[in-house]
Queue: 2 jobs
Job 1
Amino acid sequence: MDLKLRKIYVPMSETAFYILFSLQQPQHGYGIGQQVREMTDNEVSISPGTMYGTLSKMEKDGLIELVREEEKRKIYQSTDLGKEILQIELNRIKRLYKNSIGEEYYG
Amino acid sequence: MAKTKTIMKIFTIADYEEEEKWLASQHGKGWRLTKVIIPFFYVFEASEPEKVIYQLEFKESKVTDDYLKMYEDYGWEYFGTYLGWNYFRKPESEIETESDREIFSDAESKIAMIEQVFQSRIWPLLIVFVAVILPQLSDLDKDVFKTSDIVFLIIYLVLFGLYIFAIIYCGLKLFRMKKNLEK
């Protein structure tokens, strides 16, 4: 994987993480926003400007791709590269969590 | 026909937050924005006083259908685009959580917008200043007192002043806003 991309996306902002996590399934921007609110009990919400900007950037970087357009809404899904980056980030968070609760981390 | 009023007010590219607040306060007093006439005029129509939030987004690329649809999904009414700024508004009655009040929910995306303003407004201004306006300074001292040259001199000085103001005022203000967000 491109080292530059890895540097940009790992570690990831909370916004980017939830967007990329949600896009394991096809979804449009507003739908992602709703999903994230539900998942986080309204503690994380992503406004449209932030959502649109992040989706555009991730598409440009090849982490997600346009699947189709429905009633003017662009529906995206993560690419193999996106899934790979998400996995790296998930491992990092797992390590963080394990250490934070005093469990040993074996990789 | 509803009563209208037109106000002339100058907001620079670094004053968008002030502009948002001013438009909201007009709406709160019963003056709904109906038109913006570039560069400094705002047309309002008498309406019911209502608490409405205004948000401005600088975006150089063209406004697309999917972009507007997303804002619409989030409850933002698109008002129009003027000089690269997209105007959105939303009644406060539709606000559920604090983050519904803003079109950007994190510092990163706010910073990205300021960087876009720098890139497409401040830097080009600076380049024109250094490459075109500044070099003429050295030509000025010759024959300045011919009448035609005095007119030229005045135009030049006004332009010179405007450029210095725009670059220093807008540049510094945006820079400070960016620094604050980075904290």
Note: Chain A has one domain: 3-99.
Job 2
Amino acid sequence: MKLKHVALRFAACLVLLLGDRLFAVLALETNAAGALLSPSGAVDGSAFAIALGFLGCRLLFVLVFCGAVAWTAYDAVAPLSSRART
Amino acid sequence: MQALKRALPTVAAVAAFVVALRALAFACAYPAGALYDGDLDAQAELAHGMERWVEADLSRDDFATGSSRFDGEWLFATRMMAVLGYAQTAIEHPELAEAHGRLIDRAIDGLVDEPGRAFDREAWGRDPLDDLGSPRPHVAYLGYLALATSMARLVNPDSRHAALEQRIVDHLVARFEASELGLLESYPGEAYPIDNTSFFGALAVHDRATGEDHRALITHLCEGLASRYRDPHTGLLYQSVDPEDGGLIDGPRASGTALGAYFVSFADPSLSRALYRSMQSQLLVRTMGFGTTREYPPGHEGRGDVDSGPVLLGQGVSATGFTLALARIHGDRETYEATYATASFFGGPLHGNYALGGPIGDGLLFALVTALPASRWSEA
């Protein structure tokens, strides 16, 4: 397991987290917040895009973070497993 | 044994994925502990965030439901829920009463001004305040306004809205006493148990604030709600009924039941608890540390509406938020924390506001997460 790979995985998480914060601030400043709560979808396009950007970053962060942790765990255990086989 | 060793990395990866997800849920739920315990700083941050909307010159144009009436309702609900949040936190922390009393009066100014009551006037063709003393109940406006103004009076007996509160209560008491169904119309030809429960709660708060005694009427109304408008199979409240004969129009739903149980907690905590238990047994879902609430009970299907908010994979956005209040009211810490994790994840809290909340989301969450435990009302 290379440290560089691990660092890259978690750097991707950080980038997504920053995107999440950026969209959150943007949503508050532009009052885009209620866009996804609207029952009819009668919302301004840019508000909808900001709200979706926020949610997209957030969901992607969860996937990438949990995936990075899982991948790192896999890499950590794999050598032990192959050593045991040989 | 060899197969097990070969599978070890995959097993470790799956376990790590699950642990990471649960850790995220824990992180999202972390602030819930302080809010559940009524921490002053945690509540004050929400109160401060809500000031942004109370002081703003909001209008129906700030909402985009696609319906002028619903835009008006959301504008109204933003301020009404702000009042509940400010009142609850002032009761929990008396040192906030003076400052929150001013914010409450400011929010009520927006509820009673021309634009604030326009949605109801347009529905009835008559102004709700001019109609006080008439046979028209205007419950979609006056029921909730009674709750807001009675809270104002409870926090500050000298509230500038005290005289109006008295007129609204007198009007609706007369209408309910004359009602055979125990329910009044929200709009002409429309009756919703949830709107009526706002007044059941308001009347109890009014009695605490003024020393008047409407216990007999409150008991009669709550018993009527439980016996006539609660589905016998699920224990949930009907969403809407026929104002002519009380017949079912829209069946049992979580959003109406949860918000109704919140309002009823001011008047009849045991009925509120019974409604929450019905929700607990059929609607509350826990997934990897995140809590959600189904909008429809088993055997019922639907796509949701303006009351439920979006319904995603059967889980209602409004119902999930309303569950926060009931969990705190009835001492269900685990559900409160798990549900807060979901609200926090999708809402995105940021210095007292929620990124995806907007005025109504912020108002709702402020009121819901600061809902008072049922026992506190006996001391209020």
Note: The beta strands of chain B are 238-241, 248-252, 284-287, 290-293, 311-312, 315-316, 349-350, 353-354.
